Amino acid sequence: MTYNTRNEFCVCFISFLLCPQTEVSKTAISAAAAGIAGLCFVGYCIYFDRKRRSDPHFKSNLRKKRLLAKEHELAARAAKSAFPDFTDQQAVQRFFLQEVQMGESYLEQGDAVRGVEHLANAVVVCGQPTELLNVLQRTLPDPVFEMLIKKLPELGKNLMRRQPPQQPAKQPSSSFGGPVISELDVSDVE
């Protein structure tokens, strides 16, 4: 069939669509719509994948995202670390020894990040942190010791946030042998 004008083609096409003789099932229409939607989605994926791969900063941005996610995860894990009750010296000593052992075992396995995390916890609860840091500086490799030094301020801030403010002692007791300041009553002031 040949059409002389464009209008004849349009009229014939519209009459074909409206003709009751040809019935198109709903499943065929939905299958065609699903196919078109699938093709659009695949095209969308291909377009943005090419755009992503052609970006010169893509790899560096991806590394930065992964590094930030890892830092957030480590910070969250450090914040969740269960420190002992600092009034119970035995619990503090157990925690200290446990953290040192876990830090050493992680470092032996090659997991420096977790090892440093546990050693930093041990340094924070240690009674003599400068001596412990001197020992760790002599025994740890320089990059690991630098990681430890960088971790300590962050851990100290997290610990200070979780500790309730210290209440002054009501009973005068000095284990250091120095002067004891006791509370004054109003009648003591002249």
TrEMBL record:
<dbReference type="GO" id="GO:0030150">
    <property type="term" value="P:protein import into mitochondrial matrix"/>
</dbReference>
<feature type="transmembrane region" description="Helical">
    <location>
        <begin position="28"/>
        <end position="48"/>
    </location>
</feature>
<keyword id="KW-0812">Transmembrane</keyword>
<dbReference type="Pfam" id="PF02064">
    <property type="entry name" value="MAS20"/>
</dbReference>
<keyword id="KW-1133">Transmembrane helix</keyword>
<keyword id="KW-0496">Mitochondrion</keyword>
<dbReference type="InterPro" id="IPR002056">
    <property type="entry name" value="MAS20"/>
</dbReference>
<keyword id="KW-0653">Protein transport</keyword>
<protein>
    <recommendedName>
        <fullName>Mitochondrial import receptor subunit TOM20 homolog</fullName>
    </recommendedName>
</protein>
<keyword id="KW-1000">Mitochondrion outer membrane</keyword>
<dbReference type="GO" id="GO:0016031">
    <property type="term" value="P:tRNA import into mitochondrion"/>
</dbReference>
<keyword id="KW-0813">Transport</keyword>
<dbReference type="GO" id="GO:0005742">
    <property type="term" value="C:mitochondrial outer membrane translocase complex"/>
</dbReference>
<dbReference type="GO" id="GO:0006886">
    <property type="term" value="P:intracellular protein transport"/>
</dbReference>
<dbReference type="GO" id="GO:0006605">
    <property type="term" value="P:protein targeting"/>
</dbReference>
<dbReference type="InterPro" id="IPR022422">
    <property type="entry name" value="MAS20_rcpt_metazoan"/>
</dbReference>
<dbReference type="GO" id="GO:0008320">
    <property type="term" value="F:protein transmembrane transporter activity"/>
</dbReference>
<keyword id="KW-0472">Membrane</keyword>
<feature type="region of interest" description="Disordered">
    <location>
        <begin position="160"/>
        <end position="190"/>
    </location>
</feature>
<comment type="similarity">
    <text>Belongs to the Tom20 family.</text>
</comment>
<dbReference type="InterPro" id="IPR023392">
    <property type="entry name" value="Tom20_dom_sf"/>
</dbReference>
<dbReference type="GO" id="GO:0030943">
    <property type="term" value="F:mitochondrion targeting sequence binding"/>
</dbReference>
